[in-house]
Write a structure and sequence with these properties.
Strand content: 15-25%
Order of helices and strands: HHHEHHEHEEEEEEEE
Number of domains: 2
Strand order of the largest sheet: 5-4-3-9-10
Mean pLDDT: 80
Number of helices: 6
Largest sheet: 5 strands, antiparallel
Radius of gyration: 33 Å
Structural class: alpha+beta
Helix content: 40-55%
Distance between the termini: 107 Å
Length: 204
């Protein structure tokens, strides 16, 4: 009888040891699998979720405003732009003394200002589709940047330096080019000044 009891105790101790060993291996694995799920469920909302939602619906007009230096959280929503919205956007873009546009933003900034002024002077809203079509009219045009470069108006990419910008004849100029004017290359690839229609009445 004593031998049987000792054998059983030995088997019981061995079984308990094996169980404890198995649990010691299983628990870390269990915690690794469960903890990330539990932590993930308690994570706060992603910091840029709203920005990504705005960019997912970005149209031509929104892209222009972003290239002009407007932060994504200030982009207008909706399928139309009202005169009131246009005035507010112009105020944001015209914080010149505090936040002047970067050289690469100056071309898109100039186009955005023209379009926003058009809408601000109207009595009715303008569709974003019309604004997108109007932007296409600026393709291939150049504008003088404050750093003395002629640049593509929609991309802001510098084409060539035409000299330092200085005040002359009551305007900022570099050579024959004037800040705020639009230019279109002729058949000899020489930029010529052009007039931009400042009204979108033809789209109605």
């Amino acid at each position: 009888m004593p031998r049987v009891s000792t054998s059983r105790r030995t088997e019981f101790c061995l079984a308990s040891t094996l169980v404890r060993f198995a649990l010691s291996l299983f628990m870390p694995l269990f915690l690794l699998l469960v903890c990330p799920l539990a932590c993930a469920s308690n994570n706060p909302p992603q910091a840029y979720a709203s920005t990504r939602e705005v960019l997912a619906d970005l149209d031509e007009f929104g892209a222009l405003l972003m290239r002009a230096g407007l932060p994504p959280d200030l982009l207008p929503s909706g399928r139309e732009l009202s005169p009131e919205q246009a005035k507010i956007l112009r105020l944001h873009l015209h914080l010149y003394p505090l936040y002047p546009p970067k050289p690469a933003e100056h071309g898109p900034w100039t186009v955005a200002d023209v379009l926003l002024l058009d809408v601000a002077l109207k009595s009715t809203s303008i569709s974003r589709a019309d604004l997108g079509r109007r932007i296409q009219e600026f393709q291939g045009l150049l504008v003088l940047r404050p750093d003395g470069y002629l640049a593509e108006v929609l991309t802001g990419r510098a084409e060539r330096c035409v000299g330092p910008v200085e005040v002359r004849d009551d305007a900022y100029r570099a050579g024959v080019y004037k800040l705020g004017s639009f230019y279109k290359p002729d058949e000899h690839n020489e930029p010529q000044p052009i007039q931009i229609q400042h009204s979108m009445d033809s789209h109605h």
